Amino acid sequence: MKKTILTVINGGGCRQIECATGVLQALDAAGVRIDRYTGSSAGAAVAALHASGMTGAELETMIRETPARELFRPCWIHQALSLFGVPVDHLFDASGMYRILLDCMDSAVRDRVRVAVTRRRDYASMMCDATPSTVMASAAIPEVFPSVEIRGEKYIDGGVKNMIPTPRISEIGGYEHIYILLCNDDVSGPAPRTRIGRAIQAFYNTMDRETCQLYEDGWHLLPNVTVIQPPPFPSSLLDWSEDYKLIEHARNYAAEIVKGKTM
Q: What is the pLDDT of residues 121-147, one digit of tens each?
């Protein structure tokens, strides 16, 4: 049986959409043909779109042609209510992202892409076949985006419990190669003061914890695993980087790593 190439993409909002796009461009240029994907949060969206046939270059075109405000629209009433302590379950509407998934996702990707989601009622983590709905559920950061209802159950961001959806240890040897695409860190900044800022910071803290665990477990030392995490770069969860320079930053960094692996 032919061994497959797996790509694992974690979350990170707009930051990871740009970062993973740059890394995928480097993989595309090196002739790496990905057979299967797992993704969490924004990584689930990138995985689903790339598996649907969008190249890294086409992903960049989509990013440049789509203002972030069209992907995530503020719910002004909810944000105003939250300032007065009124409980609300989300502050942004992500229907723009959902429309892109509906337009661009190939139904066949459900056989190639698995995404992490968290069941809201008991915070159970699980993996699902990729569909527009499960991808949206995987990216539903608590308090920032609304939960997604699927078959009577509500689901939220897969990154709550499983930010880096790596395969089981027993499955590692079944892959020719595994590429783990980790979101870059932002440059240092002041501590957040708003509710949105605190929710985003909690999201990043989860990313940091799982990233540290990944390295502590020695994934980067395995012969058939390449971990790619570009260095810090000025970037945001809910907006594109200035002049989309994060894409180039990630592409150049990944190209050097991939070149060293394929020589």
A: 999 999 999 999 999 999 999 888 999
